[in-house]
């Protein structure tokens, strides 16, 4: 079950209600939910604080009664709030919505892949030791980063081109660096992974996400990479959401950008959502349906809600994504999601 959904009556202040829609407020602007609850708690008993969407900058504060909400509105709306670092909040009354599920609601977050029931999705905790993690981070920090709009990347083997969401197979960058050899070896020897022994991964993308930065929903281009995709999380945690769209038609990205853009063809259709918590040092494997059909997405949060805990993302998250560059067309069993079989 997701968080309750709220809407703001159109045209400004609206009728009073126990729920306040508070903009310019949330983890992404440095205000943890606990702090918000404590400040609004000055005006009455707060029932809960929840995100309105994935931005981390808008929350709903719910009281048990309208009077408390009115008192908070009067004291805090459009006035610099000293207990929130002088921040100017924009508050409206909000009503609980009974309408269609909004795509931006939060989803419950699982800590194990088997709970998600997505064929081909696996998560292995403690895939590397703490010392190996430090060595891997030191190795990439010693090498040049490429700056994208919101995060830094490094590419090995082949460069990934974000404008066409594909690799330039003619531009070989050389063998994967020796610092990933132990990981490759472990992937090969991992008994429980289907076909792992056959995989000769030859492309590595290292992503470094500052806190609050995520990744747009996407399926890795079928024609770019073969079968399984491995992603090792280091330094900080995040949640990853998976989306399966009711109607999915592959559509080439037409705009040019330096980053992975949302695959807009599916943007307005309904979809199933599931989410998993990726702790540092865990390895995620996307294979089969998980790789070819489900979009994966990292919400732009500084704090993630996992069960009943709020988990801060930390100073950065670094991921190592290992893939095998495809040399011929994709012949997967999911043609409606496949750019090779359009
Ligand atoms: O950071 C991750 O774990 C995922 C990275 C990813 O999906 C990508 O680089 O396409």
TrEMBL record:
GO terms for biological process: demethylation. InterPro entries: AlkB-like, AlkB-like_sf, ALKBH4, Nucleotide-bd_a/b_plait_sf, Oxoglu/Fe-dep_dioxygenase_dom, RBD_domain_sf, RRM_dom. Residues 18-96 form the RRM domain. Pfam families: 2OG-FeII_Oxy_2. It comes from the Eukaryota. Residues 200-326 form the Fe2OG dioxygenase domain. One of its GO terms (molecular function) is oxidoreductase activity. Keywords: RNA-binding. Gene3D superfamilies: 3.30.70.330, Alpha-ketoglutarate-dependent dioxygenase AlkB-like. The keyword Plastid does not apply. PROSITE patterns: FE2OG_OXY, RRM. Belongs to the alkB family. This is Alkylated DNA repair protein ALK. It comes from Sesamum alatum. The lineage of its organism: Eukaryota, Viridiplantae, Streptophyta, Embryophyta, Tracheophyta.
């Amino acid at each position: 079950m997701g968080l309750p959904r709220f809407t703001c009556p159109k045209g400004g202040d609206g009728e009073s209600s126990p729920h306040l829609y508070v903009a310019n407020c949330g983890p992404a602007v440095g205000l943890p939910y606990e702090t918000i609850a404590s400040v609004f708690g000055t005006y009455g008993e707060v029932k809960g604080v929840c995100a309105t969407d994935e931005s981390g900058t808008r929350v709903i504060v719910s009281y048990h009664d309208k009077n408390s909400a009115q008192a908070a509105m009067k004291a805090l709306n459009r006035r610099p709030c000293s207990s929130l670092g002088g921040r100017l909040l924009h508050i409206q009354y909000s009503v609980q919505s009974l309408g269609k599920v909004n795509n931006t609601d939060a989803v419950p977050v699982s800590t194990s892949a088997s709970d998600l029931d997505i064929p081909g999705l696996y998560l292995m905790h403690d895939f590397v030791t703490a010392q190996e993690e430090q060595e891997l981070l030191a190795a990439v920090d010693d090498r040049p980063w490429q700056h994208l709009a919101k995060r830094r990347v490094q590419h090995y083997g082949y460069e990934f081109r974000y404008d066409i969401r594909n690799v330039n197979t003619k531009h070989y960058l050389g063998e994967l660096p020796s610092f990933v050899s132990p990981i490759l070896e472990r992937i090969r020897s991992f008994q429980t992974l289907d076909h792992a022994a056959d995989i000769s991964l030859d492309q590595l993308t290292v992503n470094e996400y500052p806190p609050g930065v995520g990744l747009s929903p996407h399926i890795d281009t079928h024609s770019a990479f073969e079968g399984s995709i491995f992603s090792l999380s280091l330094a900080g945690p995040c949640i990853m959401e998976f989306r399966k769209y009711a109607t999915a038609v592959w559509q080439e990205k037409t705009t040019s950008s330096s980053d992975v853009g949302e695959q807009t063809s599916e943007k307005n259709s309904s979809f199933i959502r599931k989410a998993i918590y990726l702790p540092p040092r865990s390895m995620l494997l996307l294979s089969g349906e998980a790789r070819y059909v489900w979009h994966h997405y990292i919400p732009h949060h500084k704090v993630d809600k996992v069960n009943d805990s709020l988990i801060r993302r930390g100073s950065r998250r670094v991921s190592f994504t290992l893939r095998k560059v495809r040399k011929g067309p994709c012949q997967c069993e999911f043609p409606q999601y496949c750019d090779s079989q359009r």
